Amino acid sequence: MIAENPAKTLTDPSLSLEEFEQLAAPLIHGRPLLSWQSVGRFLDAEPGPVNWLFRDLIEGGIVGAVVARGGTGKSFLLNQLAAAAATGRAFGPFVPEKPSRVLLLAGEDPESILHRRIRATVHGMGLLSGPQASANDAFLRENFAAVSLLGESRVLIAKGATGNPETTAVFAWLSASLEDLGKAGKPVDLLLIDPLSRFFGLNENDNADATAWISALEALAKKHGLTVIFAHHVAKGAGKDGSDLSGRGASAIGDGCRFVLSLNDIDPKDLKTYGIPYEDRYRFVCMRTPKFNYVPRSGKDVFFRRGEGGILEPFQIDAGIRTRQAEKLVGIMVEEGKPATQRDLLKGSAWKAARQEMKEEFPTLPLRADLPLILTCAVENGLLERKESTEKNLNGLPTYVYRFPGATADTADKRRTNDGQDTLSAVEPDFLNQPGEPISTADTADNAIKAGRSRRTNGGKKTLSALKQAPEAKTERRTISGGQTALSGSSVSALKPASRKGL
């Protein structure tokens, strides 16, 4: 064997053909022949810790892309990822594992634009203000380098003499530069390329060319131990749902990446859901994660608001949405004038129109999943009262009846909650008994609910103030279930217990 006789060389006439091929392999192929590498090395030890660039999101040493239409915010996102990585400060969902060294190559922006955008980035992210300003400033100077290559040779891969994709002299220059930086004590952890089109000398629509591009970047990542993220324009016919993986051109661009982030204008249906005026639609950007190979894909959209200078500000777009949903639901319950259980609201035929109204108001609302949260919000904000029911669900757990404060304590409600309310004084909602707003004793519990609905909805037809001028009803005898009678001019609370069953 070769290992037992290291003195043999390619010029040794005693070499067998097999021995000659083994010795010549590095010269012919540029590397030794493949050896048997058993998975036993994986079975014998636990894997090492993950080398996160951004915790639980982007792993170090891989290639990924940011895909979006022109003007959506790709460049600002790359700038802000660079600033976050360099300082170790979180930016929205991007939480750096530690401060990292970043090199940004700008292929289409001149030095003046790069200057303006990076300055807007660090100030807009608040990195140079507050107690961490001094530390952030030092990190940015040490860890963040940005170079404009506008007007210079910058194509990393193109067709070679044989017509096949080959890396260029610029690629060799970049690789040598990264190696030199590493030797100088400044190894790059994150390489940002903005955008692909300025560094790509091949056919974007050719899958073989696209794969060659990804392979070239993977070679850089492996050789220099860094992560590469490039910006790419989205395909013209792509939808706004973030499902397009490849961006413009061949699908192999997106397929070859280990992760893809997509930026989109906010979906029109989300404008109504989140209460955003139509004229403000371009102030918001939605980020989706259509592809992640090494971490679970997030089904939750991430929203940014465009701030001063064009930076992207993380924005909790659903902040307050739960309160608005709770207020809407309570308004519907007030109009209905009756309490309900969670099951009633989800499945009851009497509440079908209410469910439809909620869906129209909040088109993306998963009512079945979110109703418990909406009801809890309503209770916590004092919009609804929750009473434990005497009934049990199919699992033997208690159920609850929800009603707005002062709602009609009807028979079913009393039976289910057993709250001991033996008079109907509670059927007049508290919000009707405000000082200076007397309610005629001629109003029955039914009318009180209607008055409450009119006051809350204020649809322009009837308001509580109109009730003040209403003439006192004449004393009138009314027949009630069970043969009981009462005067409509008397207080509702004076009704005998026997008459409550009929209300």
Nutshell version of this structure?
This protein is α/β, with parallel strands linked by helices.
What can you see in these coordinates?
The chain is elongated and about 105 Å long. The strands form five sheets. A nine-stranded mixed β-sheet has the order 5-4-8-10-3-11-12-13-14. The chain is of the alpha/beta class. The N and C termini lie far apart (102 Å). The longest helix is centred in the middle third of the chain and has 18 residues, at 207-224. Strand 13 (302-306) and strand 14 form a beta hairpin. It is built from 17 helices and 19 strands. The protein has three domains: 2-35, no CATH class; 54-314, Rossmann fold, CATH 3.40.50.300; 321-471, no CATH class. It is 35% helix and 17% strand.
Ordered list of secondary-structure elements with their pairings:
Elements: H1 17-29, H2 40-43, E1 52-54, E2 58-59, E3 63-68, H3 74-87, E4 102-106, H4 111-124, H5 133-143, E5 144-148, E6 157-159, E7 165-167, H6 169-183, E8 190-194, E9 200-201, H7 207-224, E10 227-233, H8 252-256, E11 259-265, H9 268-273, E12 284-292, E13 302-306, E14 312-314, H10 321-336, E15 340-341, H11 342-347, H12 352-361, H13 367-380, E16 385-392, E17 398-403, H14 411-417, H15 445-457, H16 464-468, E18 477-479, E19 485-487, H17 497-500
Parallel strand pairs: 3-10, 3-11, 4-5, 4-8, 6-9, 8-10
Antiparallel strand pairs: 1-2, 6-7, 11-12, 12-13, 13-14, 15-17, 16-17, 18-19
For the structure shown, list the relevant keywords.
503 residues; 9-stranded mixed sheet; elongated; 17 helices; disordered C terminus; alpha/beta; Rossmann fold; 35% helix
